[in-house]
Specification:
Blueprint: E1 3-14, H1 53-65, E2 69-70, E3 73-74, E4 77-80, E5 90-93, E6 100-109, E7 112-125, E8 129-132, E9 137-140, E10 147-153, H2 160-177, E11 189-199, E12 209-214, H3 217-236, E13 244-249, E14 254-260, E15 270-271, E16 278-279, H4 282-290, H5 296-307, H6 311-318, H7 321-333, H8 337-354, H9 362-365, H10 368-379, H11 385-398, H12 402-409, H13 417-430, H14 432-439, H15 443-456, H16 463-474
Parallel strand pairs: 12-13
Antiparallel strand pairs: 1-10, 1-11, 2-6, 3-16, 4-5, 4-15, 6-7, 7-10, 8-9, 11-12, 13-14
Helix pairs in contact: 2-3, 5-6, 7-8, 7-10, 10-11, 13-15, 13-16, 14-15, 15-16
């Protein structure tokens, strides 16, 4: 029997707001434990929460960008459970009436585009954090009350690879909206996955397991791949899948059972009596819609139209907002966008990745005027593209101008025909057999001779001149 995979994702996104969801405490990351708390987020008797207006604005922005319908009636609920990092013994969330529902997100798969439906987007506050030591478990309540949105997909995802693509696409949209830094290491974006298997062609969902503790998109993909194998093996051996919560262990590359899965009734949801329900005016929703920025798909389509880029190139550039901004700013100063794109997607991105430099710092390590200056030096034959590849890492590392590096390292391109001809003569004398192959019309042999000249000049000879002079010399 063949099985098919059914996956739904629950993504918690910490919104990039200075203060908490229902009080004025700061949410700055990395502060000493329990220094960013007040009677409200500590859940002391007699206090009343007040909704952070920016919380609602950012949440609406995300919902609209995900093609959701925003409700005109907003209410909050209490989700009850007891845990040491939850001082009120309930979490302010939304249950039966979420902020928004019925959205979708398009992802690219091998066979084309696939629509992943968004079940709901709701608002809630975060819990605190437990820090486990050898002798004790410590509670840090700085994070308590942090504004979150939870984005819940329908079970439309069919593989770990699709889940990875969905998360990458979702992260890109959230970054374009500038409502979250989406930093998984800081906990700004967290993902839980519900996964089940069912016989191929069946419509009834199988018993699901919820997987938690995945700290990267790669971790999500690895955990889901493991679960697919585990569940299929269990089913083929006649076993039963248990509805439970499982934790992903990155080191062991396995999931482990944590607890049986809770149902909604276990949380005893009730409307929060301290937060009065209210109506969101239609004009407020439309205003939020009008203020949405250009999103990744629209950006991609415009890059193709305005700069004649390929679908692939535009897709890579538009996936990261800061990279797209850098490209367009550079293209305003250097009118060969394809060349800029090639440098960004190869040598520049390679250097950033190797040195763990985030793209948002690209303008700092490589100001646009310095990149443009380097490209113009290639155009006027001061340096070759090969020499530029030596210059670029030095520019990124030191911040020096291209012209300074060229002078310091004596990298100026050789354009003196006499000098180049003397090197060509050496190469011809050393490669008589190859010369005969060139004369018989073999292009690879010609390129070999060009390569030898470039090698002898340490890449400094003008390659076009070398090619032309060899042809002239050998009369081909």
């Amino acid at each position: 029997m063949q099985y098919e995979t059914v996956i739904g994702l629950e993504v918690h996104v910490q919104l990039d707001i200075n203060t908490k969801a229902f009080c004025g405490c700061s949410i700055e990351f990395g502060k000493p434990a329990n220094t960013q708390v007040c009677p409200i987020c500590l859940g002391l008797p007699g206090v009343l929460p007040v909704l952070n207006e920016k919380f609602l604005q950012y949440a609406m922005r995300a919902a609209l960008a995900l093609n959701c319908t925003v409700a005109n009636f907003l209410k909050f609920d209490r989700k009850h459970y007891y845990y040491p990092d939850l001082p009120k013994n309930y979490q302010i969330s939304q249950y039966d009436k979420p902020l928004a529902a019925n959205g979708h997100l398009q992802i690219k798969i091998e066979t084309g585009q696939k629509k992943i439906r968004i079940l709901r987007v709701h608002m809630e506050e975060d819990a605190g954090k437990l820090i486990h030591t050898k002798d004790a478990s410590l509670v840090d309540l700085n994070r308590t009350g942090t504004p979150l949105i939870e984005i819940v997909s329908q079970p439309d995802i069919s593989s770990a690879a699709e889940a990875y693509t969905y998360l990458t696409r979702l992260k890109s949209i959230l970054e374009y909206l500038e409502i979250s830094d989406c930093d998984m290491e800081k906990g700004s974006l967290r993902c839980d996955a519900n996964i089940s298997l069912r016989p191929q062609g069946h419509t009834t969902l199988g018993t699901k397991a919820e997987v938690k503790n995945m700290n990267s998109f790669k971790g999500v993909r690895d955990a889901l791949n493991y679960e697919i194998i585990r569940q299929e093996k269990t089913l083929r051996e006649g076993g039963t899948i248990i509805q439970e919560t499982r934790l992903w262990n990155e080191e062991k590359q396995k999931t482990f059972s944590m607890r049986s899965k809770e149902e909604a009734h276990d949380y005893r949801y009730i409307p929060d009596p301290d937060l009065v329900p209210f109506v969101i005016e239609k004009e407020a929703i439309e205003k939020a819609r009008r203020e949405l920025p250009e999103l990744p798909q629209a950006k991609k389509e415009r890059l193709i139209k305005d700069y004649s880029l390929s679908d692939y190139d535009a897709g890579i550039l538009s996936a990261d907002k800061q990279l797209a901004i850098y490209f367009e700013d550079a293209a305003q100063n250097y009118k060969q966008p394809k060349i800029i794109c090639n440098w960004l997607m190869s040598d520049i991105m390679s250097y950033l990745n190797t040195n763990n430099i985030p793209i948002k710092k690209l303008k700092e390590v490589l100001p646009i005027d310095k990149l443009v200056a380097m490209l113009k030096l290639i155009d006027n034959n001061t340096i070759s593209g090969k020499i530029a590849k030596q210059v670029l890492p030095e520019m990124l590392k030191t911040g020096k101008d291209t012209s300074v590096i060229i002078k310091e390292k004596n990298l100026s391109q050789i354009t003196d025909a006499g000098v180049i001809e003397s090197v060509i003569n050496e190469v011809i004398n050393e490669n008589e057999k190859v010369v005969e192959e060139v004369k018989s019309g073999k292009d690879k042999a010609l390129m070999f001779l060009v390569g030898q000249v470039m090698k002898k000049t340490r890449g400094k000879a003008n390659p076009r001149m070398v090619n032309s002079l060899i042809k002239k010399k050998l009369e081909v």
